[in-house]
Structure prediction request, 286 residues.
Amino acid sequence: MKRILLQLDTDAHASSFDAVTALDSGIDHLLSHGLVNTSNVVPLVQGTIFTRGPKDLKNTAIFIGGSDVESGEKLLAKVQEAFFGPMRVSVMMDSNGCNTTAAAAVVSAQKHIDLSQTRAVVLGGTGPVGRRVAQILGSHGAQVVVTSRSLSKARHVCSLIDGTSSNYIPGIIPEEGDLCSLLEGANLLIAAGAAGVQFTNIEDLSQCESLKVVIDLNAVPPLGVEGIQSTDKARKIGSITCYGALGVGGLKMKIHHHLIEQLFEANDHIFDTSQIYNSAVSLGQM
Prediction:
């Protein structure tokens, strides 16, 4: 029986990146839909679960994407509400690559530091990837400074991640000057800002004595941290171990392909942040 993936995207045009990745993962057919929201998704879900018997539903799966993570999460919840009994299919949510990229970044960092003993600063921590990076780090014992140009926005995201946890601290990125005061005591910096936003440079970061690992997830010039190359993979610059977007990207793609394949092993998998990170840990050890 053919393996069919239903791509539900909250943007006007379904992501070509997600489509190509799905096809490279070995599916047989891809059905892509844009502008999917909680009001129109149920008929799409019903179309996937009522066309095959329960024993064959493992051959159908759903991928949720788009640039808005909160919309993706709401869509995931609505999709799950439409399931009942054995009438369900496996689902993966990775809006804007938030979960796979974040998981790959944290796994890369974890090769060099103990998360439970880590103070991390996430630049662009309120964005789709930064938020998931912060969530994963904090859930594994790290103290995380979630930064934004707007302190109120940083506070809001900390509350959304876990409003009761002291592991998440809102921080503001200074408009000018270095980041050393923000990075005081931090041994991990992950830059997860929007494309073209440059936060700092590796020379200035080298002055921060506690800093051990810097990961820049921006692949579009100018990069988030000047002096780090997008292809860097555990490259030493002074005492700092550096990763660029492509250096992390190989693991991110490996995770993405693996999880698309796993969707078709059963009809009841739900792959969101924690599940995707657990898979990343296993793959990162290979």
User: Anything to note?
Assistant: Residues 124 and 193 are 4 Å apart (CA to CA). The chain has a mean pLDDT of 95.
